[in-house]
Design brief:
The chain has about 260 residues and is α/β, with parallel strands linked by helices. Helix content is about 35%, strand content about 25%. β7 and β8 form a beta hairpin. The relative contact order is 0.11. The protein binds zinc ion. The site of zinc ion has 5 residues, from loops.
Length: about 260
């Protein structure tokens, strides 16, 4: 077995634009949202890691689809949302629960973040300032509301925005450039938004990942966390998508606009 290293998070690209997250210390590993087993097995083999646990945020196949194949090779705990039906879960979790992974010396707090799906959960490593939020908060955007309401999603995003600014946001997709193009339309007068679009475009042009982001960057530039900002409200009014300034109505209008924005 290889040498023990500081605990770290490695992105495993999968499908067209997913990131599967491998948390490891050079010897032991846990994986968040293994939609596909093959790239995980390849990473475990090349880094010489033993997989100790699987963590799931929600039931979509691009997040949980690799679980049966990973379990065919080993018997390990599978943590996941109590309110969603996912084959293979051995430890169902709800907000307020805690996950202890002693082999990795890692503790994760569980948050209920419904909206994208009805039972979606997120994992927070408070000591490391890491957030694994699946398809709830994205770099520059947020997940679509497939099962939840705008009220639920706004409350879920507010919970995540309350984490410390230096918290790293390990979201599950590389959507940042298209999200930031929309962010410029939603808040054209915000220079941080314009600068971030340019910065993220340059990173993609160099072939780099734009995630993880941080909560601080998201609070400054992600329109879905800025539904009370005058600039965002003004754009929604100008588009004829909102009357008044109610933040949940603004969030709903923003999400609807993003759904049709090209
Ligand atoms: Zn999803």
């Amino acid at each position: 077995m290889s040498v023990k290293q500081p605990l770290q998070v490695t992105a495993i690209p999968a499908f067209a634009d997913n990131y599967l997250w491998l948390i490891h210390d050079g010897q032991h590993a846990a994986v968040v949202d293994p939609g596909d087993a093959a790239p995980i097995e390849a990473a475990l083999a090349s880094l010489n890691l033993k997989l100790d646990a699987i963590l799931l945020t929600h039931h979509h196949a691009d997040h949980a689809g690799g679980v049966p194949a990973l379990l065919a090779q080993r018997q390990i705990p599978v943590y996941g949302p109590a309110r969603e039906r996912i084959a293979g879960i051995t430890v169902p979790l709800s907000g307020g629960d805690r996950v202890d992974l002693p082999a990795l010396d890692l503790t994760l707090a569980v948050l209920d973040v419904p909206g994208h799906t009805a039972g979606h959960i997120a994992y927070v490593a408070h000591d490391q300032h890491w957030l694994f939020c699946g398809d709830t908060l994205f770099a520059g955007g947020c997940g679509r509301l497939f099962e939840g309401t705008p009220e639920q999603m706004s409350a879920s995003l507010a919970q995540l925005a309350a984490l410390p600014d230096d918290t790293k946001v390990y979201c599950a997709h590389e959507y940042t450039v298209s999200n930031m193009r929309f962010a410029v339309a939603a808040e054209p007068g915000n220079p941080d938004v314009t600068a971030r679009l340019e910065h993220e475009q340059q990173r993609r042009a160099r072939g780099e990942a734009t995630v993880p982001s941080t909560i601080g960057v998201e609070k400054r530039t992600n329109p879905f966390l800025r539904c009370r900002e005058p600039g965002v409200l003004a754009s929604l009014h100008a588009e004829g998508r909102l009357s008044g300034n109610d933040p949940v109505a603004a969030f709903a209008a923003l999400r609807e606009w993003k759904n049709v924005y090209r």
